[in-house]
Amino acid sequence: MANVVKKYSISYDLAQKMADAAVAKARELGVTENVAILDDGGNLKAFSRMDGAPMPTIEMAQNKAYIALLGVSTTGMFQLYSGRPVAFGRHPLAFAYCGVGWRVSH
């Protein structure tokens, strides 16, 4: 068993608490949001869609969470690739996800 590494990952309970806290903050701010929480491998662990949140923002929330997992805000990603459309294959929605991303680490 020398080749086995113990890996820690976010639990379901913690992921759900994080999503609930984000929804509570959105309510406090008077906005409707979709909240995506990923595990360390970039897999969706918890998701909350508030009543009235726009449908297109479901995918946006997941993409923003993935970019945050990389350790870069989506605004930072935009700045990094701004003026370099070739980096994203000139996809018309390449920068549709720019905004704020958070990365939580222990």
Secondary-structure element order, as H and E? Answer: HEEHH
Number of strands: 2
Query: How many strands, what sense, and barrel or not for the largest sheet?
Result: 2 strands, antiparallel
**CA-CA gap between termini:** 26 Å
Give unreliable regions as ranges. Answer: 89-106
Q: What is the CATH class?
A: Alpha Beta
* Average pLDDT score: 76
Rounded to the nearest angstrom, the radius of gyration is 16 Å
Fraction of helical residues: 25-40%
| Order of neighbouring strands in the sheet with most strands | 1-2
The CATH architecture would be: 2-Layer Sandwich
CATH superfamily, by name, is: Haem-degrading domain
Q: What percent strand? A: 5-15%
The total domain count is 1
Write down the overall geometry.
Answer: flat
Please give the count of helices: 3
* CATH T-level topology: Beta-Lactamase
Find the structural class using helix and strand composition. Answer: alpha+beta
